[in-house]
Design brief:
33% strand; GTP Cyclohydrolase I, domain 2; 117 residues; single chain; 3 helices; four-stranded antiparallel β-sheet; elongated; alpha+beta
């Protein structure tokens, strides 16, 4: 079985950037994530469990955004660690999109992490 819980484009405002000047102002990021997990109990009982309460996970991810970082890769790693800690997911995919003024629409980093058993 390979069920997935997915959240797309969660808006986060945070201070992020390699240079100090870039971190002076909050920037908008979009975070998407998916959890590979068994959703059969949620579907059967028509009720969410604490493991898969995506609203609570979104709040926790926004709280992570309160910490300043240099790279979206580090932020994605921190989110993946949080999701694996807070759920029974077997694996997580996390994408963080940033909108730098470089003449490009967006820059993103995607990471996939497996739960260590």
């Amino acid at each position: 079985m390979s069920d997935r819980l997915c959240v797309s484009d969660l808006e986060i405002w945070t201070r992020i950037g390699v240079n100090t000047e870039e971190r002076q102002v909050e920037q908008r990021l979009l975070v998407s994530f998916s959890l590979e997990c068994d959703l059969s109990s949620v579907a059967e009982h028509d009720a969410i469990s604490e493991d898969f309460d995506y609203a609570a996970l979104a709040v926790s991810i926004r709280d992570l955004g309160l910490q300043e970082r240099k790279t979206i890769e580090r932020f994605a790693q921190d989110i993946a660690s949080l999701l694996l800690r807070r759920s029974t997911a077997k694996s997580v995919d996390v994408t963080v999109k940033k909108f730098p003024p470089l003449g490009v629409k967006e820059v993103s980093a995607t990471i996939v992490r497996l739960k260590n058993h």
